[in-house]
Amino acid sequence: MRDQVTPLRLLPGEVQAQDTRVVLVREVLAGESVSCVAGRGDVDPVVLHRWVQQFVDAGTRAVTNAPDAQAAAQRDRFLAAFAHELRTPLAVGRGWLDVIADGDLPPQQLDSVMGRLQKAYLALENRINDVELLVAASLGRLTIRREAVAASALFEASGLHPQSPSHHPAFVDPDLFTRVLRDMWGAANLEPAPSTVQVESHETTTWTEFRVTRTGSPLSPSRLQGLFEPFDLDDDTSGITFGLYLARALTVAHGGVMGLEQTDETLVLWARVPRPANHSTPPMKGT
């Protein structure tokens, strides 16, 4: 007689039990179809299928104690690119310090040189802060201080101006999420220069969505792919940048998801963060 198969029963646990993404994945693993769960959760079925695969792959690696070769390769690329990025401000600072040490600097140029040194130092400090933030997000050690903030207040704090006001709440860490919005705006303004760039936000049943829409000349497929690579090397003179790699990590740390859609004339970058489970939030800031 064949052994009986015990039906899969997912037990409540401590690991992000209320995370919208994990809830949807667990529903699929419990036997529901991807299409049904995706429709109910307002998620693209392709995205949900990827989450399920990543969830299973991560569990398999944990059970078998197998290393993640892709993560190791990405880490090596990241470290090499980060070292490259640090060399520029360090070289600038050392060059001007050598000039000062040699006594070849005219007194009237001292203020200008000190300004250059300060700029190089700030660039170095900002890059290190970015990496610390990225590492904390990637390791799940980033502290997210969520609060209900009017979407319009987040746009204003980011220096962005939607065409129509967005007074609905977003349940996010305002300090971190304004970084997400600024990085999305920067990505939408990459060369070739766009005709227009607009921002907006709206609510769905499950998510609060922020969108940055670019019209005009499209970005190349390689540029689009590079947006989500850490320290991707630009093909112009802007050097090595984070692109949307950090912005996506911060969005994921909020329990959200980031993506893009492009046609011949329009590029839409979007970031979705979950609404509270009961769709009620504390009194909003910024209203």
Automatic annotation (TrEMBL):
Residues 74-140 form the Signal transduction histidine kinase dimerisation/phosphoacceptor domain. It comes from the Bacteria. It is found in: Cell membrane. It is an enzyme of class 2 (transferase). It catalyses: ATP + protein L-histidine = ADP + protein N-phospho-L-histidine. Keywords: Kinase, Transferase, Two-component regulatory system. GO terms for molecular function: phosphorelay sensor kinase activity. Its EC number is 2.7.13.3. The keyword Transferase applies. Gene3D superfamilies: 1.10.287.130, Histidine kinase-like ATPase, C-terminal domain. InterPro entries: HATPase_C_sf (IPR036890), HATPase_dom (IPR003594), HisK_dim/P_dom (IPR003661), HisK_dim/P_sf (IPR036097), Sensor_HK_Regulatory (IPR050736). The keyword Acyltransferase does not apply. One of its GO terms (cellular component) is plasma membrane. It holds the Pfam family HATPase_c. This is histidine kinase. It comes from Pedococcus sp. KACC 23699.
